[in-house]
Amino acid sequence: MTYDELNEENPYWLTDFFCESDFSARCVVFFSSNFTSNHQVTRGILRALVKIKQNGVAIKRDHFVQANKYLNVAGAVMILDMLSAEEIEQMVGQYLCKHYNLPELFDAEKIEV
After folding, report:
1. Could you give the CA distance from residue 72 to residue 41 in angstroms, rounded to a whole number?
2. 3-state secondary structure of 40
3. Is the sign of the CA dihedral 9, 10, 14, 18 positive or negative?
4. Cβ(49)–Cβ(59) under 8 Å?
5. How many CB atoms lie within 10 A of CB 45?
6. Is the dihedral of CA 86, 84, 33, 78 positive or negative?
7. DSSP character for 58?
8. CA–CA separation, 83 vs 102, rounded Å?
9. How many angstroms separate the Cα of 71 from the Cα of each of 12, 36, 87?
10. Main-chain dihedrals φ then ψ at residue 2, nearest 5 degrees
11. Burial class for 20, CB neighbours closer than 10 Å (0-12, 13-18, 19+)
């Protein structure tokens, strides 16, 4: 689920990120949600978290919990399976930046949901 075929240089970069710390807690939280069985949703969430990490934030278990909570709510009003990984990344990234009072790292103009 964390394989990224679009990254020819290292298609396992999201796997590396996911497994780098707190693996068991991340697995329980992340893969207990049904929507993470969709490859686009999984890639979008992980890309958002990587981008936040690249901006100096230590990613903890709660970041995964909050991303799942947000998508649970969003999934009640839209069909998540119809969204691209980029749209999921933008949605989750914007929510997490707002939730954790981080600087805006995701362009609000790109989302057309």
Report:
1. 12
2. helix
3. negative
4. yes
5. 29
6. positive
7. P
8. 25
9. 24, 10, 12
10. -100, 5
11. exposed
Q: Which of 93, 106, 95 is nearest to 46 (CA)?
A: 93
Number of residues written out for the chain: 113
pLDDT tens string, the chain, 113 residues long: the values are 889 999 999 999 999 999 999 898 899 988 888 888 999 999 999 999 999 999 999 999 999 999 999 999 999 999 999 999 999 999 999 999 999 999 998 876 655 44
- The reported pTM is 0.91
The tokens of 32 are what? 């207990």
* Token couple for 58: 């230590």
Which two tokens mark 14?
Answer: 């999201």
